[in-house]
Amino acid sequence: MTFIFKIFLYLAIVVGGLQSLHAQTPYTLEKVLKTTRLNNPILKSEHYNVAIAESDILSAELRPNLVLSNETIQIANSSDFENSTNWGHPKNREVLWQLSKTFQIMGQRQNKIEVAQKSAQLSQKEYTEIESAVLFEVAQKWNDVWTAQKQLELIKSAKDNIDSLVITNQHRFRNQVITQTDVFRTELLAKQYALQYATERQELANRKKELQFIMGIQDTIQIDTSEDLGRYGLTSLNELLQQSMEFRSDIQVAKSMIEVSESNIHLQKSMAYPQPEIGVIYNAQNKVPHFGFAASIDLPFFDRNQGEVKKSLIQRDQAEQQFHTLQTQLQTEITTAYESHRVQLQNIKNYQSVLEQSQTILDNIKYAYLRGGTSIVDFLEAQSSWLETQEQYNDVLEQYRQSHIQLLYVAGLINQLAQ
Protein backbone atom coordinates (compact mmCIF):
# COMPACT_ATOMS: atom_id res chain seq x y z
CA MET A 1 0.00 0.00 0.00
CA THR A 2 2.88 2.37 0.78
CA PHE A 3 4.36 1.73 -2.66
CA ILE A 4 1.03 2.43 -4.39
CA PHE A 5 0.58 5.61 -2.35
CA LYS A 6 4.00 6.82 -3.41
CA ILE A 7 3.14 6.15 -7.05
CA PHE A 8 -0.07 8.18 -6.82
CA LEU A 9 1.78 10.98 -5.02
CA TYR A 10 4.43 11.05 -7.72
CA LEU A 11 1.78 11.19 -10.47
CA ALA A 12 0.01 14.03 -8.67
CA ILE A 13 3.24 16.01 -8.47
CA VAL A 14 3.97 15.42 -12.16
CA VAL A 15 0.45 16.44 -13.21
CA GLY A 16 0.62 19.53 -11.00
CA GLY A 17 3.96 20.43 -12.51
CA LEU A 18 2.59 20.05 -16.03
CA GLN A 19 -0.38 22.26 -15.16
CA SER A 20 2.01 24.84 -13.73
CA LEU A 21 4.05 24.77 -16.92
CA HIS A 22 0.88 25.13 -18.94
CA ALA A 23 -0.12 28.14 -16.84
CA GLN A 24 3.24 29.74 -17.62
CA THR A 25 2.64 29.78 -21.36
CA PRO A 26 5.32 32.04 -22.87
CA TYR A 27 4.07 35.45 -23.93
CA THR A 28 4.29 36.22 -27.62
CA LEU A 29 4.27 39.83 -28.82
CA GLU A 30 0.61 39.56 -29.75
CA LYS A 31 -0.35 38.17 -26.33
CA VAL A 32 1.63 40.91 -24.56
CA LEU A 33 -0.15 43.61 -26.57
CA LYS A 34 -3.62 42.14 -25.93
CA THR A 35 -2.94 41.80 -22.21
CA THR A 36 -1.69 45.39 -22.03
CA ARG A 37 -4.73 46.71 -23.85
CA LEU A 38 -7.00 45.16 -21.21
CA ASN A 39 -4.98 45.74 -18.04
CA ASN A 40 -2.70 48.76 -18.47
CA PRO A 41 -3.51 51.26 -15.66
CA ILE A 42 -2.79 54.30 -17.85
CA LEU A 43 -5.26 53.15 -20.50
CA LYS A 44 -7.89 52.42 -17.85
CA SER A 45 -7.59 56.01 -16.63
CA GLU A 46 -7.57 57.55 -20.11
CA HIS A 47 -10.67 55.63 -21.14
CA TYR A 48 -12.75 57.75 -18.77
CA ASN A 49 -12.15 60.70 -21.12
CA VAL A 50 -14.16 58.89 -23.77
CA ALA A 51 -17.10 58.48 -21.38
CA ILE A 52 -16.80 62.15 -20.37
CA ALA A 53 -16.94 63.24 -24.01
CA GLU A 54 -19.95 61.00 -24.66
CA SER A 55 -21.79 62.61 -21.75
CA ASP A 56 -21.60 65.91 -23.65
CA ILE A 57 -23.98 64.39 -26.20
CA LEU A 58 -26.60 64.05 -23.48
CA SER A 59 -26.08 67.69 -22.50
CA ALA A 60 -26.45 68.83 -26.11
CA GLU A 61 -29.71 66.91 -26.51
CA LEU A 62 -31.34 68.68 -23.54
CA ARG A 63 -33.82 71.44 -24.35
CA PRO A 64 -33.85 74.80 -22.52
CA ASN A 65 -35.80 74.81 -19.25
CA LEU A 66 -38.97 76.78 -18.70
CA VAL A 67 -38.36 80.08 -16.93
CA LEU A 68 -40.75 81.14 -14.17
CA SER A 69 -40.45 84.75 -13.03
CA ASN A 70 -42.37 86.92 -10.58
CA GLU A 71 -42.69 90.66 -10.09
CA THR A 72 -44.46 92.06 -7.02
CA ILE A 73 -44.94 95.83 -6.69
CA GLN A 74 -46.17 97.24 -3.35
CA ILE A 75 -47.61 100.73 -2.75
CA ALA A 76 -44.96 102.45 -0.67
CA ASN A 77 -46.94 105.20 1.14
CA SER A 78 -49.77 104.22 3.47
CA SER A 79 -51.60 107.42 2.51
CA ASP A 80 -52.06 105.91 -0.94
CA PHE A 81 -53.65 102.67 0.40
CA GLU A 82 -57.22 101.84 -0.52
CA ASN A 83 -59.75 102.99 2.08
CA SER A 84 -60.03 100.73 5.08
CA THR A 85 -57.03 98.58 3.97
CA ASN A 86 -53.64 97.93 5.46
CA TRP A 87 -50.18 97.13 4.08
CA GLY A 88 -50.94 93.47 3.45
CA HIS A 89 -54.17 93.97 1.50
CA PRO A 90 -54.03 92.67 -2.14
CA LYS A 91 -55.45 95.95 -3.44
CA ASN A 92 -52.26 97.70 -2.38
CA ARG A 93 -49.94 95.63 -4.56
CA GLU A 94 -49.52 94.38 -8.14
CA VAL A 95 -48.37 90.79 -8.77
CA LEU A 96 -47.06 89.54 -12.14
CA TRP A 97 -46.20 85.95 -13.01
CA GLN A 98 -44.52 85.02 -16.28
CA LEU A 99 -43.76 81.53 -17.65
CA SER A 100 -41.54 81.53 -20.71
CA LYS A 101 -39.23 79.32 -22.74
CA THR A 102 -36.24 79.98 -24.99
CA PHE A 103 -36.46 78.44 -28.47
CA GLN A 104 -33.41 77.26 -30.39
CA ILE A 105 -33.84 78.10 -34.06
CA MET A 106 -31.90 77.65 -37.30
CA GLY A 107 -30.81 74.12 -36.31
CA GLN A 108 -28.94 75.31 -33.21
CA ARG A 109 -29.85 72.28 -31.10
CA GLN A 110 -29.08 69.79 -33.88
CA ASN A 111 -25.75 71.48 -34.55
CA LYS A 112 -24.87 71.23 -30.85
CA ILE A 113 -25.67 67.52 -30.91
CA GLU A 114 -23.58 67.01 -34.04
CA VAL A 115 -20.58 68.80 -32.52
CA ALA A 116 -20.89 66.72 -29.34
CA GLN A 117 -21.07 63.49 -31.35
CA LYS A 118 -18.05 64.44 -33.46
CA SER A 119 -16.16 65.45 -30.32
CA ALA A 120 -16.93 62.07 -28.75
CA GLN A 121 -15.59 60.35 -31.85
CA LEU A 122 -12.49 62.54 -31.65
CA SER A 123 -12.04 61.55 -28.01
CA GLN A 124 -12.16 57.89 -29.02
CA LYS A 125 -9.53 58.51 -31.71
CA GLU A 126 -7.34 60.36 -29.20
CA TYR A 127 -7.65 57.40 -26.84
CA THR A 128 -6.55 55.12 -29.67
CA GLU A 129 -3.49 57.32 -30.20
CA ILE A 130 -2.59 57.06 -26.50
CA GLU A 131 -3.20 53.32 -26.71
CA SER A 132 -0.87 53.11 -29.70
CA ALA A 133 1.93 54.86 -27.78
CA VAL A 134 1.47 52.56 -24.77
CA LEU A 135 1.47 49.46 -26.97
CA PHE A 136 4.64 50.65 -28.68
CA GLU A 137 6.28 51.14 -25.30
CA VAL A 138 5.25 47.70 -24.07
CA ALA A 139 6.52 46.13 -27.30
CA GLN A 140 9.88 47.78 -26.66
CA LYS A 141 9.86 46.51 -23.07
CA TRP A 142 9.03 43.05 -24.36
CA ASN A 143 12.00 43.28 -26.72
CA ASP A 144 14.19 44.41 -23.80
CA VAL A 145 13.19 41.28 -21.89
CA TRP A 146 13.95 39.18 -24.97
CA THR A 147 17.42 40.77 -25.26
CA ALA A 148 18.17 40.28 -21.56
CA GLN A 149 17.02 36.67 -21.69
CA LYS A 150 19.12 35.95 -24.79
CA GLN A 151 22.15 37.53 -23.12
CA LEU A 152 21.58 35.42 -20.01
CA GLU A 153 21.32 32.26 -22.12
CA LEU A 154 24.53 33.19 -23.93
CA ILE A 155 26.48 33.79 -20.70
CA LYS A 156 25.13 30.56 -19.27
CA SER A 157 26.31 28.67 -22.34
CA ALA A 158 29.78 30.20 -22.04
CA LYS A 159 29.79 29.56 -18.28
CA ASP A 160 28.79 25.91 -18.68
CA ASN A 161 31.48 25.46 -21.32
CA ILE A 162 34.20 26.88 -19.06
CA ASP A 163 32.90 25.06 -15.97
CA SER A 164 33.28 21.74 -17.78
CA LEU A 165 36.76 22.74 -18.88
CA VAL A 166 37.68 23.62 -15.26
CA ILE A 167 36.79 20.08 -14.19
CA THR A 168 38.77 18.66 -17.09
CA ASN A 169 41.81 20.83 -16.39
CA GLN A 170 41.75 20.01 -12.68
CA HIS A 171 41.84 16.33 -13.61
CA ARG A 172 44.62 16.94 -16.15
CA PHE A 173 46.63 18.90 -13.58
CA ARG A 174 46.41 16.03 -11.10
CA ASN A 175 47.74 13.79 -13.86
CA GLN A 176 50.51 16.38 -14.47
CA VAL A 177 49.42 16.96 -18.07
CA ILE A 178 49.15 20.76 -17.69
CA THR A 179 50.55 23.37 -15.33
CA GLN A 180 48.77 24.92 -12.37
CA THR A 181 48.73 28.23 -14.29
CA ASP A 182 46.41 26.70 -16.89
CA VAL A 183 44.05 25.63 -14.12
CA PHE A 184 44.10 29.07 -12.48
CA ARG A 185 43.43 30.84 -15.78
CA THR A 186 40.49 28.57 -16.51
CA GLU A 187 39.11 29.00 -12.99
CA LEU A 188 39.53 32.78 -13.22
CA LEU A 189 37.50 32.92 -16.42
CA ALA A 190 34.85 30.68 -14.85
CA LYS A 191 34.55 33.09 -11.89
CA GLN A 192 34.25 36.05 -14.26
CA TYR A 193 31.45 34.31 -16.15
CA ALA A 194 29.73 33.45 -12.85
CA LEU A 195 29.74 37.12 -11.83
CA GLN A 196 28.50 38.19 -15.26
CA TYR A 197 25.78 35.53 -15.12
CA ALA A 198 24.53 36.86 -11.77
CA THR A 199 24.45 40.41 -13.17
CA GLU A 200 22.57 39.37 -16.29
CA ARG A 201 20.08 37.35 -14.24
CA GLN A 202 19.28 40.43 -12.15
CA GLU A 203 19.03 42.52 -15.33
CA LEU A 204 16.48 40.07 -16.71
CA ALA A 205 14.46 40.21 -13.48
CA ASN A 206 14.42 44.03 -13.61
CA ARG A 207 13.29 44.09 -17.23
CA LYS A 208 10.51 41.60 -16.45
CA LYS A 209 9.23 43.75 -13.59
CA GLU A 210 9.09 46.78 -15.89
CA LEU A 211 7.18 44.74 -18.46
CA GLN A 212 4.76 43.39 -15.84
CA PHE A 213 3.98 46.91 -14.63
CA ILE A 214 3.18 48.35 -18.03
CA MET A 215 1.15 45.23 -18.87
CA GLY A 216 -0.84 45.75 -15.67
CA ILE A 217 -0.27 42.25 -14.27
CA GLN A 218 1.33 40.90 -11.10
CA ASP A 219 2.29 37.36 -12.06
CA THR A 220 5.83 36.57 -13.17
CA ILE A 221 5.91 36.06 -16.92
CA GLN A 222 7.99 34.17 -19.43
CA ILE A 223 8.33 35.42 -22.99
CA ASP A 224 8.62 33.37 -26.13
CA THR A 225 12.24 33.84 -27.25
CA SER A 226 11.73 31.60 -30.28
CA GLU A 227 8.96 33.73 -31.81
CA ASP A 228 9.51 34.83 -35.39
CA LEU A 229 8.36 38.43 -35.78
CA GLY A 230 8.14 37.86 -39.52
CA ARG A 231 4.73 36.27 -38.99
CA TYR A 232 3.32 39.72 -38.23
CA GLY A 233 2.87 40.53 -41.87
CA LEU A 234 4.85 43.43 -43.21
CA THR A 235 4.11 43.79 -46.90
CA SER A 236 5.47 46.12 -49.56
CA LEU A 237 6.18 49.79 -48.93
CA ASN A 238 3.16 50.94 -50.96
CA GLU A 239 0.80 48.63 -49.07
CA LEU A 240 2.20 49.83 -45.75
CA LEU A 241 1.56 53.43 -46.79
CA GLN A 242 -2.03 52.57 -47.68
CA GLN A 243 -2.58 50.67 -44.44
CA SER A 244 -1.16 53.53 -42.40
CA MET A 245 -3.74 55.95 -43.87
CA GLU A 246 -6.44 53.58 -42.63
CA PHE A 247 -5.08 52.47 -39.27
CA ARG A 248 -2.61 55.06 -37.99
CA SER A 249 -4.12 56.76 -34.97
CA ASP A 250 -2.75 60.30 -35.47
CA ILE A 251 -4.11 60.34 -39.02
CA GLN A 252 -7.52 59.30 -37.68
CA VAL A 253 -7.31 62.04 -35.04
CA ALA A 254 -6.48 64.63 -37.71
CA LYS A 255 -9.43 63.51 -39.86
CA SER A 256 -11.73 63.63 -36.86
CA MET A 257 -10.48 67.12 -36.00
CA ILE A 258 -11.51 68.32 -39.48
CA GLU A 259 -14.96 66.83 -38.99
CA VAL A 260 -15.35 68.50 -35.60
CA SER A 261 -14.25 71.86 -36.98
CA GLU A 262 -16.69 71.59 -39.90
CA SER A 263 -19.54 70.85 -37.50
CA ASN A 264 -18.46 73.70 -35.27
CA ILE A 265 -18.60 76.12 -38.21
CA HIS A 266 -22.26 75.19 -38.76
CA LEU A 267 -22.96 75.62 -35.06
CA GLN A 268 -21.32 79.01 -34.73
CA LYS A 269 -23.06 80.33 -37.84
CA SER A 270 -26.43 79.19 -36.47
CA MET A 271 -25.62 80.83 -33.12
CA ALA A 272 -25.41 84.16 -34.95
CA TYR A 273 -29.24 84.11 -34.93
CA PRO A 274 -30.87 85.27 -31.67
CA GLN A 275 -32.89 82.82 -29.59
CA PRO A 276 -36.43 84.14 -29.01
CA GLU A 277 -38.06 83.75 -25.60
CA ILE A 278 -41.84 83.32 -25.64
CA GLY A 279 -44.18 82.94 -22.67
CA VAL A 280 -47.50 83.67 -20.98
CA ILE A 281 -48.25 86.29 -18.31
CA TYR A 282 -50.64 86.37 -15.39
CA ASN A 283 -50.94 89.80 -13.79
CA ALA A 284 -53.19 90.67 -10.86
CA GLN A 285 -53.76 94.45 -10.59
CA ASN A 286 -55.92 95.62 -7.69
CA LYS A 287 -57.31 92.08 -7.42
CA VAL A 288 -58.27 92.19 -11.10
CA PRO A 289 -56.59 89.29 -13.02
CA HIS A 290 -55.01 89.94 -16.40
CA PHE A 291 -53.63 87.40 -18.90
CA GLY A 292 -51.30 87.99 -21.81
CA PHE A 293 -48.36 86.82 -23.88
CA ALA A 294 -44.72 87.88 -23.71
CA ALA A 295 -41.96 87.64 -26.30
CA SER A 296 -38.39 88.89 -26.34
CA ILE A 297 -35.50 88.58 -28.76
CA ASP A 298 -32.00 90.00 -29.01
CA LEU A 299 -31.56 92.53 -31.75
CA PRO A 300 -28.33 91.49 -33.51
CA PHE A 301 -27.08 94.95 -34.36
CA PHE A 302 -23.66 94.46 -32.74
CA ASP A 303 -23.11 90.85 -31.65
CA ARG A 304 -23.70 88.34 -34.43
CA ASN A 305 -21.18 85.79 -33.05
CA GLN A 306 -18.59 87.09 -35.50
CA GLY A 307 -15.64 86.17 -33.31
CA GLU A 308 -16.63 82.52 -32.80
CA VAL A 309 -17.47 82.12 -36.49
CA LYS A 310 -14.05 83.42 -37.46
CA LYS A 311 -12.36 81.21 -34.87
CA SER A 312 -14.17 78.12 -36.17
CA LEU A 313 -13.01 78.85 -39.72
CA ILE A 314 -9.40 79.24 -38.54
CA GLN A 315 -9.64 76.01 -36.55
CA ARG A 316 -10.87 74.20 -39.67
CA ASP A 317 -7.90 75.55 -41.68
CA GLN A 318 -5.53 74.55 -38.87
CA ALA A 319 -6.93 71.00 -38.76
CA GLU A 320 -6.56 70.62 -42.52
CA GLN A 321 -2.97 71.88 -42.37
CA GLN A 322 -2.15 69.41 -39.59
CA PHE A 323 -3.63 66.59 -41.66
CA HIS A 324 -1.51 67.45 -44.71
CA THR A 325 1.60 67.75 -42.52
CA LEU A 326 0.94 64.34 -41.00
CA GLN A 327 0.57 62.81 -44.44
CA THR A 328 4.04 64.02 -45.40
CA GLN A 329 5.47 62.97 -42.03
CA LEU A 330 3.87 59.56 -42.37
CA GLN A 331 5.49 58.89 -45.73
CA THR A 332 8.90 59.89 -44.37
CA GLU A 333 8.60 57.79 -41.21
CA ILE A 334 7.37 54.67 -42.97
CA THR A 335 9.96 54.90 -45.75
CA THR A 336 12.75 55.36 -43.21
CA ALA A 337 11.53 52.53 -40.97
CA TYR A 338 11.00 50.22 -43.95
CA GLU A 339 14.52 50.76 -45.30
CA SER A 340 16.04 50.32 -41.83
CA HIS A 341 14.12 47.07 -41.43
CA ARG A 342 15.44 45.77 -44.74
CA VAL A 343 19.03 46.60 -43.77
CA GLN A 344 18.69 44.86 -40.39
CA LEU A 345 17.18 41.78 -42.02
CA GLN A 346 20.09 41.62 -44.46
CA ASN A 347 22.56 42.03 -41.59
CA ILE A 348 21.13 38.95 -39.90
CA LYS A 349 21.57 36.89 -43.06
CA ASN A 350 25.12 38.12 -43.54
CA TYR A 351 26.04 37.33 -39.93
CA GLN A 352 25.27 33.62 -40.24
CA SER A 353 28.63 32.82 -41.84
CA VAL A 354 30.45 34.81 -39.15
CA LEU A 355 28.74 32.78 -36.42
CA GLU A 356 29.63 29.50 -38.09
CA GLN A 357 33.27 30.53 -38.48
CA SER A 358 33.50 31.65 -34.86
CA GLN A 359 32.03 28.38 -33.59
CA THR A 360 34.32 26.32 -35.82
CA ILE A 361 37.42 28.20 -34.63
CA LEU A 362 36.47 27.69 -30.97
CA ASP A 363 35.75 23.97 -31.45
CA ASN A 364 39.05 23.42 -33.32
CA ILE A 365 41.20 25.30 -30.80
CA LYS A 366 39.49 23.58 -27.85
CA TYR A 367 40.08 20.22 -29.47
CA ALA A 368 43.74 21.09 -30.10
CA TYR A 369 44.20 22.45 -26.56
CA LEU A 370 42.79 19.34 -24.90
CA ARG A 371 45.29 17.28 -26.89
CA GLY A 372 48.22 19.53 -26.16
CA GLY A 373 48.40 21.03 -29.62
CA THR A 374 48.08 24.66 -28.47
CA SER A 375 48.31 26.81 -25.35
CA ILE A 376 45.68 27.97 -22.90
CA VAL A 377 46.21 31.52 -24.18
CA ASP A 378 45.01 30.54 -27.66
CA PHE A 379 41.93 28.87 -26.22
CA LEU A 380 41.04 31.82 -23.99
CA GLU A 381 41.38 34.21 -26.95
CA ALA A 382 39.16 31.97 -29.06
CA GLN A 383 36.62 31.76 -26.23
CA SER A 384 36.61 35.56 -25.82
CA SER A 385 36.29 36.07 -29.59
CA TRP A 386 33.41 33.58 -29.74
CA LEU A 387 31.54 35.32 -26.93
CA GLU A 388 32.08 38.74 -28.49
CA THR A 389 30.80 37.48 -31.85
CA GLN A 390 27.71 35.96 -30.22
CA GLU A 391 26.99 39.19 -28.34
CA GLN A 392 27.33 41.19 -31.55
CA TYR A 393 24.90 38.83 -33.24
CA ASN A 394 22.41 39.30 -30.39
CA ASP A 395 22.79 43.07 -30.86
CA VAL A 396 21.99 42.65 -34.55
CA LEU A 397 18.94 40.54 -33.69
CA GLU A 398 17.80 43.16 -31.16
CA GLN A 399 18.15 45.94 -33.74
CA TYR A 400 16.24 43.88 -36.29
CA ARG A 401 13.40 43.20 -33.85
CA GLN A 402 13.34 46.84 -32.81
CA SER A 403 13.12 47.93 -36.44
CA HIS A 404 10.26 45.47 -36.96
CA ILE A 405 8.36 46.86 -33.95
CA GLN A 406 9.08 50.42 -35.12
CA LEU A 407 7.66 49.65 -38.54
CA LEU A 408 4.53 48.09 -37.03
CA TYR A 409 4.08 51.26 -34.96
CA VAL A 410 4.62 53.88 -37.67
CA ALA A 411 2.35 51.93 -40.04
CA GLY A 412 -0.43 51.93 -37.42
CA LEU A 413 -0.55 48.12 -37.31
CA ILE A 414 0.45 47.66 -33.68
CA ASN A 415 -3.11 48.45 -32.52
CA GLN A 416 -4.47 45.81 -34.87
CA LEU A 417 -2.38 43.11 -33.19
CA ALA A 418 -3.96 43.98 -29.85
CA GLN A 419 -7.53 43.62 -31.09
Descriptive account of the structure:
The chain has about 425 residues and is an alpha+beta fold. It has a single domain (about 25-65, about 105-275, about 305-415), classed as Outer membrane efflux proteins (OEP). The protein is built from 10 helices and 4 strands; from the N terminus they run αααββααααββααα. The protein has helices spanning about 1-25, 30-40, 40-60, 110-175, 180-215, 235-245, 250-270, 305-370, 375-410, 415; strands spanning about 65-75, 95-100, 275-285, 290-295. A 4-stranded antiparallel beta sheet has the order 1-2-3-4, with no helix packed on it. Mean pLDDT is about 90; it is low at about 15-25.
Give a quick set of tags describing it.
419 residues; alpha+beta; Outer membrane efflux proteins (OEP); elongated
